[in-house]
Amino acid sequence: MQLRNKEDFWSGIMFLAIGTGFALGATSYSMGTAARMGPGYFPFWLGVLLALLGAIVALGALSPKAEETEIGKFDWKIAAIVVGSVALAGVLLSSLGIYLTVFLLVVGSSFASHEFSWTVSIITGLFLVLFVWLAFIKGLGLIFPLWPSFLGM
Fold it and tell me: CA 114: distance to chain centroid?
């Protein structure tokens, strides 16, 4: 076996390690059953599936049919933009509310793309705000501050 696709191999190893870590970490919680899930059930099986996906991707990189690639240089600027956007969203959530925070998170992290477009990032931001409202506010009934606290809504 020869390692042909180094990008896929190392991303598969990363998924395998993270999935295994989450699955092992979830074993310290009560598992429950499929009908009555405990707090460890979902993270355990999600970790197992992630590890399985990682193994499939890593093994696929060893296939003779795999496209031959090398690992490119890590782009710290892009990583900083994405991580910074998420951290800023966490800080701003309580004061700006979920709607503006999600919108700013999407638009801010869109700057990491090499193909940035204001139109696409604004449309995506609006779509995700609608999704958050439908899934988390209406669907699951979670309680978040919806609007900025200074508006008094």
Answer: 19
Highest mean pLDDT, choosing among 34-38, 74-78, 118-122: 118-122
Model confidence over 80-121: pLDDT tens digits? Answer: 999 999 999 999 998 999 999 999 999 999 999 989 999 999
Provide φ and ψ at 32, rounded to 5°.
75, -160
- DSSP assignment string, the chain: ----BHHHHHHHHHHHHHHHHHHHHHTTS--B-SSSB-TTHHHHHHHHHHHHHHHHHHHHTTSTTSPPB-PPPP-HHHHHHHHHHHHHHHHHHHHHHHHHHHHHHHHHHHTTSTT--HHHHHHHHHHHHHHHIIIIIIIS------S-GGGT-
Contact 108, 81 (CB under 8 A): yes
> What's the pLDDT score for residue 128?
96
Give the C-alpha distances (Å, rounded to integers) separating 18 from 25, 26, 60, 71: 10, 12, 18, 20
Distance, in Å, from the CA atom of 89 to the CA atom of 58, rounded to the nearest integer, reads 33
